[in-house]
Design a protein that fits this description.
Layout: E1 13-18, H1 29-34, H2 36-48, E2 52-59, H3 64-73, H4 77-94, E3 101-104, H5 108-123, E4 127-136, E5 149-152, E6 161-162, E7 179-183, E8 191-200, H6 206-214, H7 221-231, E9 237-238, E10 240-242, E11 260-262, H8 264-269, H9 271-282, H10 290-293, E12 299-305, H11 309-324, E13 344-348, E14 351-353, H12 368-375, H13 377-387, E15 394-396, H14 398-428, H15 439-460, H16 464-485, H17 494-515, H18 520-529, E16 541-546, E17 564-569, H19 603-607
Parallel strand pairs: 1-2, 1-12, 2-3, 12-13, 14-15
Antiparallel strand pairs: 4-8, 5-6, 5-7, 8-9, 10-11, 16-17
Bound molecules: zinc ion (ZN).
């Protein structure tokens, strides 16, 4: 699992921190367009540059929605989380998302790390106890957890708001704020009584947070503006909750209470750190994570949907500042050390489905699994890169998907590979030896060579749409070159034919390198089509592990030892892909290529597939599933 490779003088240390999908169901293509695919393109590019990448994530498994759903199904929260963790792991691995470790929040290690961060904040004085109101059931006198309370949202007026959150407007709520609150168990009106919780003292961290944010001048302007605007308004935020599913509160008098746990947002955001620690332990060097976390020269990029910006640009940095003792109350860092704050926060907008939000109930949802089964990973990766919600909400339509796949992937790119290699194979049986180059040959080679810097600089700044646009310009230029040179008419001039085909094959190889972060599966095939052997672009694997990572000495009430679960990991050091021209070698044997992409039935554009037919008629907007 080593993330070290090709260490050069200029190589960087890059943490790719990817948003944690919530384990209450399979993921749809809207989810992976926001966090999964962009973060993987970014990580693959950096690995090709020789940078030391650590890419981590996992499933977020605590909190109310999983409990509610488990209750409805008659299963335990743990069983439900186990089931969907596995589904999500398989989907993300199938998509080729190259995590160094994709784990989960119900591990012993995660409990211990979340509790250590709590301890550090508490020691430094940034967690303060407060008495607030909680609900009890008047008929039984028992605590009524948030998940069992619903009512009307005080912010948007939605009638089915939950005690902790409104699914319509996305705002976090307190059950006492609900209008007409009622128990989901028996419909009675809950009684609100006093209950004690710990709050993160955000006002004491506001000044340090503001100074840090003002130093982030290279962030996307929307993220920076949004974050700075919130600073003046920071209020203490509860980090514990009346709930019986979560990480125990690691303080005497609290840790053995079944009804008090760390709030799910608090433990989930710490997952970036705990997953890095787990990766290090599993790779045999338990301190290896520090190179990405306590090294001021390391860069960290956090990838998420826009609804999560605040947790990454404010809340998580505030936790890190508090742990290090850098707020108004001072303090010092605990044993985890001087943890570094995010370098980049990369948020994407929403992917909609034929003009409306993805909706499980209305059938306007496309699950990753179904999509991969029918069309494979690269067609979806391409669509997300070229037409995804990078800067603004974007719409998935079958018509657009068919057009992109048939005309851009199959006709433009697939056909360029196919006709270049076919002609060279038919006429020479190998990569031909070129003669003198003409101006046209050199011009095309120059266009391809220059694209490494252009595409690379876009990728380094997470501008995926511009990056793939520039990469596809090389493909277009090569197709035009072949049409102009007409090598099929050069049978009487074998040396000129050899030169043209050698030039074309070199540019196919270059374009393939440029497209590797986007289309890693196809890139492996093109590499082999050009006579390459071994692994060009490495793929992640699903590995079964048991929960045996030590949670000592700080873990309290941690899950049992030995629970089995799948992780995504991979050995990416074996791949040969590098971000520069790889010379094609004359004399390399070629075989007849098979089509790189299968064209889709144009009827798909009209009807959608049988398993996700296009819904006609008016559709209402709805909160993302
Ligand atoms: Zn609302």
């Amino acid at each position: 699992m080593s993330a070290l490779r090709r260490m050069g003088a200029m190589s960087k240390t890059v943490l790719t921190a990817v948003a944690w999908p919530y384990a209450n169901g399979p993921r749809h293509i809207g989810h992976v367009s926001g966090f999964g695919v962009p973060s993987d393109i970014f990580s693959r590019y950096h690995r090709m540059m020789g940078d030391r990448v650590l890419m981590i994530s996992g499933t977020d498994e605590h909190g109310t929605p999983i409990l509610v759903q488990a209750d409805a199904e008659g299963s335990t929260a743990r069983e439900l989380a186990d089931r969907y963790n596995r589904v999500i792991v398989e989907d993300l691995a199938g998509l080729g998302v190259s995590y160094d470790l994709f784990t989960r929040t119900t591990t012993r290690n995660h409990y211990a790390i979340a509790q250590e961060v709590f301890h550090g904040l508490h020691r430094n004085g940034y967690l303060v106890p407060r008495v607030t109101t909680g609900a009890i059931s008047p008929s039984t006198g028992r605590t009524l957890p948030d998940r069992y309370i619903e009512g009307t949202c005080p912010i948007c007026g939605y009638d089915g708001a939950r005690g902790d959150q409104c699914d319509n407007c996305g705002n976090q709520l307190d059950p006492a704020d609900l209008i007409n609150p009622r128990s989901k168990v028996n419909g009675e009106t809950p009684e609100f009584v006093e209950t004690e919780h710990f709050f993160l003292d955000l006002p004491a961290l506001a000044s340090a947070l503001g100074d840090w944010l003002k130093s982030r001048q290279d962030w996307r302007p929307n993220v920076l503006r949004f974050s700075l605007n919130l600073i003046d308004d920071l209020r203490p935020r509860a980090v514990t909750r009346d709930i019986d599913w979560g990480v125990p509160v690691p303080l005497e008098g609290w840790s053995d209470r079944a009804d008090k746990k760390l709030y799910v947002w608090f433990d989930a955001v710490i997952g970036y750190l705990s997953a890095s620690v787990e990766w290090a332990v599993r790779s045999g060097d338990p301190d290896a994570w520090r190179e990405w976390w306590t090294n001021p020269d390391a860069e960290s990029s956090y990838f998420m949907g826009k609804d999560n910006i605040t947790f990454h640009s404010q809340i998580w940095p505030a936790l890190l500042l508090g742990y290090r003792g850098l707020g108004d109350k001072g303090g010092e860092a605990g044993p985890l050390g001087e943890l570094e704050l995010p370098t980049e926060v990369v948020s994407s907008e929403y992917l909609t489905m034929s003009g409306s939000k993805f909706s499980t109930s209305r059938g306007t949802v496309i699950y990753v699994r179904d999509f991969l089964r029918e069309y494979g990973p690269d067609a979806l990766r391409y669509f997300i890169a070229v037409a995804g919600p990078e800067n603004q909400d974007s719409d998935f339509t079958w018509e657009e998907f068919v057009r992109r796949t048939n005309f851009e992937l199959a006709n433009e790119w697939g056909n360029l590979v196919n006709r270049s290699v076919s002609m060279a194979h038919k006429n020479f049986g190998e990569v031909p030896t070129p003669g003198p180059l003409t101006e046209a040959d050199q011009a095309l080679l120059d266009v391809a060579a220059a694209a490494f810097d252009t595409v690379g600089s876009h990728l380094a700044r997470s501008r995926f749409k511009q990056a793939i646009g520039e990469a596809m310009r090389v493909v277009t230029a090569a197709n035009r070159y072949l049409s102009d040179m007409e090598p099929w008419k050069l049978k009487d001039d074998p040396q000129r034919q050899a030169t043209v085909l050698h030039t074309a094959l070199q540019v196919v190889s270059d374009a393939n390198t440029l497209l590797t972060p986007f289309l890693p599966h196809a890139a492996q095939r093109v590499f082999e089509t050009l006579g390459g052997t071994g692994i060009w672009a490495a793929q992640p694997e699903v590995r079964e592990v048991v929960d045996d990572v030590p949670a000592d000495p700080i873990g309290v009430g941690v899950p049992e030892l030995g629970h089995a679960y799948p992780v995504i990991t991979g050995d990416y050091t074996v791949e040969q892909a590098v971000w520069r021209r790889t010379e094609v070698v004359p004399g390399t044997p070629l075989t007849k290529p098979s089509p790189l992409f299968t064209k889709l039935d144009p009827a798909l554009a009209e009807t959608g597939p049988e398993w996700a037919p296009i819904v006609s008629g008016p559709v209402e907007s709805e909160a993302p599933a």
